[in-house]
């Protein structure tokens, strides 16, 4: 596949230019904004596929120095197996949501604001790409803030006025989180004198038993936990996802928390060498416990919800816990599971929010009680929802099962038996809250079976939903490729040995 | 495959049923064609693909599997005819969904029968749960939905909570999931110091295979009786529950292995644990007035016969278990067909209402009598054959109490079946009911009679079955 | 020893005190504008902290000058410039949100807005 060394930076530059050009071009015609977004998303997807292919086939790590300045002076982008994989996932979600967004946004956002929406959307995605490829901690902070700021704006564009308050809360909490990360980065800079992640990991070695490093670690982890929305620090997420426009909920649920989780993995292993520092203060166990609580609480809170988007939001909190759990168990099988879950959950949640969006588009509501008999009104959406729900539960032959298998295998092999009931319990809780919705959709008490005619959502929204559902099942049946990439990434990042 | 045909022909009822029948017959024929190969001692294997490294979706047809598959597919043919009659008489709704789910359920049952490893089996096990769920809740009434929910919670919950970790742990400790003669735990057991790990895994497996309805995880079965009768007949007398015990047999024989289980004493524990079910379920059955509930508890009891048999770990007992799969299937399905006939032709659901039915519906009652006598274990009915094997096996294992339990439960069986026969034949019809001869529709009657006769035939022709078994065990 | 501990590290103390003031403002004040001010204080404390660690005793401004022996570290200054930009943008977005909230809800007190939201949810549910 065609590969150019500069792709690593083009993945940032192209969307940036297109995003900045969009407001100007849409002065000509509003619809052009969507085309620009499509162009940007397609270009980034192709670039990321090419990058991943290059990495897998040649086996090296891509190092790109911005402006030719060598580290530790210059900013460096570093793409290895893990990055490349996550990048492909995120760009794919970006592409497919942009396709979806065309009609979804047309109904939820006023026409004259559409160019602004797409510009901010592209910048949001840009921030995500940046977070993934960068190897410099301060650069990470900058891209994180780009993502967050555009995220606040996107959430605020929802059609419900409560989205404004949701966005404001998100802003406050997100800023606190980002500032904590900044403090942590400051401490790290103080003791190592460098901002480059690889350099820093070398230099941190002699500080492993010092308080400074643990303080830095604590600040950064707290900030990241807030971005990842792990249980006690998740308060911004439900409202933000519920009131945001549907396409935005889909993208944010599938990407921003995942990328933050990826950053966590990257920092744990590459910068902090968590296995070693856990010998001084058991940070891995602490985060593991928090992640387990998050996994359970996410599912428990999802059960009592009356709005489907809010239910999916709480479900996301639980699912992200899996990824963090995979990272803290400190075994390559569990980490493989966590990385795989980045892929699988992105697909599943994106698809579920697509369905919710289609329902909102046609029926104007997102309350669960209004979903009665959906199997007759919108059979395609109901079917997609059921298949995606099965994947979330972890039925074999779906993507979710593969993740669960690896997580459980990793937990048993590393001796953390007690995680197995946690993972299984949350699967069962997932059955409960999805089962409730599916029951309503298919098996409601109804008198007239024949009077309801099916309504179809527009093609632009149906096709992405089908594609995602298909992929989710595909990666459950033919999981070899993602599993190999994920385990390669896991082993690489853990330093080349099964721990 | 038939699913697609059924779906596309949903507008035309005749066509849809045609596909069902055709599919069931083809399936049966395909399976029958595999018999000669098995008899000659070989097995057929087919590995489809790897889902991910280490886990393949692969199939293997051996004696045990084909045994189960023949039972299931043959009875599906009969049940399809029966279903058509039942569903048409009661003018049920959502018939398309019904037939589609039926087809998927049967395919998953065959999938379980032909699995070559635990993973493939788990896949089809779950698909079976999911595809029978809409069938249980078919009526869409409050009770039906409640029953379906309990069904799903029990089956899916235990399989995710217990069976899945057991499978994963097995993979981790033994490195494989393949069904092999003699079990894959042998090396592991020799190397490990304590039996605790193996015992825990064994318990997890047994708890996770809730489809075998061992008490205390049996409640789903009586609750699932809200399903339409053909569903109860095929699925809960044959496909779902027999899948459960089949999986138990597979796990005992081909995963853990006879040596490991007898050396660790786990076999005996399971035998005694399941014997409790045999007795308790029979006692509960005595008190049930609802026909289907009584049959459900009878099924629970009979399933534990099979489990006790296989856990005795002697050749005779194991043979008895496998034989009982088919014998109980035929007998019980006759009884459930009868229950449906009573519902359709006479409109009654309770034993106490059955006075004098023998006169009104002589063919149905005759079929019932044959099936019941078979289950009680009288000659010349097939039930005697399996009982003899069980008793011999228990004796071989030196477990006299188990023999007593088997005998006692035969008496209990009689206690809950004979009253029905008595009331039906020797009591008078309630006042106001016409003694006119009004049977269930022919489509329902014929399969019932066929299965009833089957119980007699099986008594006389166990030879073929034993041949198959030689290569299965 | 204690005096040295407190006085010698006064930049840390300042930063912590400011951070707590900012944090307190965010959490306990109901007025949205005050929350934004709280965020600003909070972030400013971090900036001060960073810059304070850039100072090297005996160092001078990082411009090349013949009589200089040591220079202060310019890197944190640069980083903080970036961070200040981020902070300003965040404040801008926050203020824009507050304006819109005021237009929609008619109030910028958080508790009032919350009760209006709850009403709104109840109204929607009843429909």
Q: Overview of this structure, please?
A:
- The complex is a heterotrimer of chains A (499), B (473) and C (127).
- With 499 residues, chain A is mainly alpha-helical.
- Chain A has helices at residues 7-25, 32-58, 81-108, 114-133, 137-156, 162-192, 197-203, 211-228, 236-243, 246-271, 274-277, 283-303, 308-328, 332-363, 374-377, 379-393, 399-413, 419-442, 459-477, 480-493; strands spanning 62-65, 76-79.
- Chain A has a domain at 296-499.
- Chain A has a two-stranded antiparallel ribbon.
- In chain A, α3 (81-108) runs antiparallel to α19, α13 (308-328) packs antiparallel against α14 and α16 (379-393) runs antiparallel to α18.
- Chain B is globular and about 70 Å long.
- Chain B has helices at 2-8, 13-39, 63-90, 95-113, 118-136, 142-174, 186-191, 196-208, 220-223, 229-256, 258-264, 266-286, 291-311, 315-346, 357-360, 362-376, 382-396, 400-426, 442-460, 462-472; strands spanning 44-52, 55-61.
- Residues 1-13 of chain B have low confidence and may be disordered.
- A two-stranded antiparallel sheet of chain B has the order 1-2.
- The two termini of chain B are 31 Å apart.
- Chain C has one domain (2-126): Helix Hairpins.
- Chain C is built from five helices and two strands.
- Chain C has helices at 2-8, 10-28, 32-54, 74-105, 110-126; strands spanning 59-60, 70-71.
- Chain C has a two-stranded parallel ribbon.
- In chain C, α2 (10-28) packs antiparallel against α3 and α3 runs antiparallel to α4.
- The longest helix of chain C is centred in the C-terminal third of the chain and has 32 residues, at 74-105.
- The radius of gyration of chain C is 21 Å and the shape is elongated.
- Chain C starts with a helix and ends with a helix.
- Chain A binds chain B through residues 390, 393-397, 402, 404-405, 408-409, 412-413, 420-421, 424-425, 427-428, 431, 435, 439, 442-446, 449, 476-480, 483-484, and chain B through 49-53, 55, 93-94, 119, 122-123, 126-127, 130, 134, 137, 140-142, 145, 148-149, 152-153, 156-157, 160-161, 164-165, 168-169, 171-172.
């Amino acid at each position: 596949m065609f590969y150019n060394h500069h792709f690593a930076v083009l993945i940032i530059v192209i969307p940036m230019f297109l995003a900045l050009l969009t407001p100007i071009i849409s002065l000509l015609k509003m619809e052009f904004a969507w085309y620009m977004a499509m162009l940007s998303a397609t270009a980034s997807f192709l670039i990321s596929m090419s990058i991943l292919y290059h990495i897998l086939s040649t086996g090296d790590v891509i190092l790109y120095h911005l402006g030719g300045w060598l580290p530790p002076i210059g900013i460096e982008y570093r793409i290895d197996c893990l990055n490349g994989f996550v990048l492909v996932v995120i760009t794919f979600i970006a592409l497919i949501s942009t396709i979806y967004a065309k009609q979804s946004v047309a109904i939820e956002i006023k026409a004259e604001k559409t160019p602004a929406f797409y510009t901010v959307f592209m910048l949001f995605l840009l921030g995500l790409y940046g977070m993934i490829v960068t190897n410099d901690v301060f650069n990470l902070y900058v891209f994180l803030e780009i993502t967050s700021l555009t995220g606040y704006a996107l959430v605020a564009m929802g059609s419900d006025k409560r989205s404004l308050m949701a966005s404001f809360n998100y802003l406050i909490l997100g800023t606190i989180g980002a500032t904590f990360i900044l403090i942590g980065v400051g401490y790290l800079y103080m003791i190592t004198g460098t901002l480059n992640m690889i350099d820093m990991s070398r230099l941190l070695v002699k500080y492993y038993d010092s308080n400074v490093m643990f303080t830095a670690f604590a600040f950064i982890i707290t900030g990241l936990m807030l971005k990842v929305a792990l249980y006690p620090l998740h308060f911004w997420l439900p409202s933000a996802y519920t009131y945001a426009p549907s396409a935005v909920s889909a993208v944010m649920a599938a990407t921003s928390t995942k990328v933050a989780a990826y950053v966590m993995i990257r920092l744990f292993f590459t910068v902090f060498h968590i296995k070693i520092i856990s010998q001084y203060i058991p940070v891995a166990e602490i985060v593991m416990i928090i992640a387990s609580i998050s996994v359970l609480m996410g599912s428990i809170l999802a059960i009592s919800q009356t709005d489907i988007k809010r239910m999916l939001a709480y479900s996301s909190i639980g699912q992200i816990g899996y990824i963090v759990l995979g990272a803290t168990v400190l075994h390559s099988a569990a980490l493989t599971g966590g990385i795989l879950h980045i892929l699988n959950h992105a697909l599943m949640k994106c698809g579920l929010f697509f369905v919710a969006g289609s329902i909102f588009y046609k029926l104007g509501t997102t309350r669960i009680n209004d979903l009665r008999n959906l199997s007759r009104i919108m059979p395609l959406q109901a079917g997609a929802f059921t298949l995606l729900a099965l994947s979330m539960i972890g039925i074999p032959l779906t993507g979710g099962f593969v993740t669960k298998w690896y997580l459980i295998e990793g937990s048993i092999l590393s001796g953390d038996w007690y995680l197995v009931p946690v993972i299984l319990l949350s699967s069962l809780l997932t059955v409960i809250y999805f089962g409730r919705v599916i029951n309503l959709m298919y098996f409601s008490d109804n008198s007239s079976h024949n009077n309801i005619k099916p309504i179809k959502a527009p093609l632009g929204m149906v096709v992405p939903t089908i594609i995602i559902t298909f992929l989710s099942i595909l990666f459950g049946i033919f999981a070899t490729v993602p599993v190999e990439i994920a385990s390669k990434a896991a082993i690489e990042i853990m330093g080349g040995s099964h721990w | 495959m038939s699913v697609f045909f059924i779906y596309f022909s949903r507008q035309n009822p005749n066509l849809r049923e045609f596909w069902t029948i055709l599919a069931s017959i083809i399936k049966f024929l395909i399976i029958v064609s595999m018999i000669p190969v098995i008899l000659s001692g070989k097995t057929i294997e087919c590995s489809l693909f790897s889902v991910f490294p280490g886990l393949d979706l692969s199939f293997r047809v051996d004696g045990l599997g084909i045994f189960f598959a023949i039972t299931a597919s043959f009875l599906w043919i009969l049940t399809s005819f029966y279903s058509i009659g039942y569903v048409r008489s009661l003018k049920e709704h959502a018939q398309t969904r019904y037939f589609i789910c039926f087809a998927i359920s049967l395919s998953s049952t065959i999938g379980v029968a032909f699995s070559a490893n635990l993973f493939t089996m788990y896949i089809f096990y779950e698909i079976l749960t999911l595809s029978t769920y809409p069938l249980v809740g078919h009526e869409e009434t409050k009770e039906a939905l409640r029953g379906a929910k309990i069904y799903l919670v029990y089956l899916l919950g235990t399989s995710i909570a217990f069976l899945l970790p057991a499978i994963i742990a097995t993979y981790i400790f033994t490195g494989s999931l393949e069904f092999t003669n003699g079990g894959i735990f042998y090396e592991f057991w020799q190397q490990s110091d304590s039996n605790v790990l193996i015992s825990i895994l064994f318990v997890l497996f047994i708890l996770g295979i809730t489809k075998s309805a061992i008490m205390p995880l049996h409640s789903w079965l009586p609750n699932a009786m809200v399903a339409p009768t053909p569903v109860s007949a095929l699925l809960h007398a044959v496909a779902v529950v027999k899948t459960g015990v089949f999986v138990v047999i597979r796990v005992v024989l081909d995963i853990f292995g006879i040596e490991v289980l007898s050396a660790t004493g786990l076999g005996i524990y399971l035998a005694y644990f399941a014997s409790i079910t045999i007795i308790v379920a029979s006692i509960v059955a005595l008190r049930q007035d609802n026909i289907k509930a009584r049959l459900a508890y009878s099924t629970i009891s009979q399933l534990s016969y099979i489990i006790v048999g296989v856990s005795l770990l002697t050749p005779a007992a194991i043979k008895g278990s496998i034989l009982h799969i088919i014998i109980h299937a035929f007998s019980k399905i006759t009884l459930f067909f009868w229950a449906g006939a009573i519902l359709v032709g006479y409109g009654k659901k309770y034993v106490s209402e059955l006075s004098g039915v023998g006169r009104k519906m002589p063919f149905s009652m005759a079929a019932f009598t044959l099936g019941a006598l078979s289950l009680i274990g009288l000659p010349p009915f097939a039930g005697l054959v399996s009982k003899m094997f069980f008793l011999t096996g228990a004796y071989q294992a030196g477990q006299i109490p188990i023999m007593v339990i088997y005998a006692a439960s035969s008496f209990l069986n009689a206690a809950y079946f004979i009253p029905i026969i008595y009331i039906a034949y020797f009591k008078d019809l309630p006042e106001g009911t016409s003694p006119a001869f009004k049977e269930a529709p022919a489509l329902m009657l014929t399969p019932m009679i066929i299965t009833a006769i089957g119980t007699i035939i099986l008594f006389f022709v166990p030879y073929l079955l034993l041949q198959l078994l030689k290569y299965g065990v | 020893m204690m005096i040295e501990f407190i006085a010698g590290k006064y930049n840390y103390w300042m930063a912590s005190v400011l951070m707590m003031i900012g944090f307190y403002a965010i959490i306990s004040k109901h007025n949205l504008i005050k929350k934004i001010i709280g965020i600003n204080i909070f972030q400013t404390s971090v900036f001060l902290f960073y810059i304070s660690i850039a100072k090297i005793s005996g160092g001078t401004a990082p411009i090349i000058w013949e009589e200089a022996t040591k220079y202060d570290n310019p890197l944190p200054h640069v980083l903080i410039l970036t961070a200040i930009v981020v902070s300003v943008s965040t404040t801008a977005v926050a203020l824009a949100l507050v304006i819109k909230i005021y237009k929609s809800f008619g109030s910028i007190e958080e508790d009032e807005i919350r009760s209006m939201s709850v009403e709104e949810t109840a109204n929607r549910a009843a429909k």
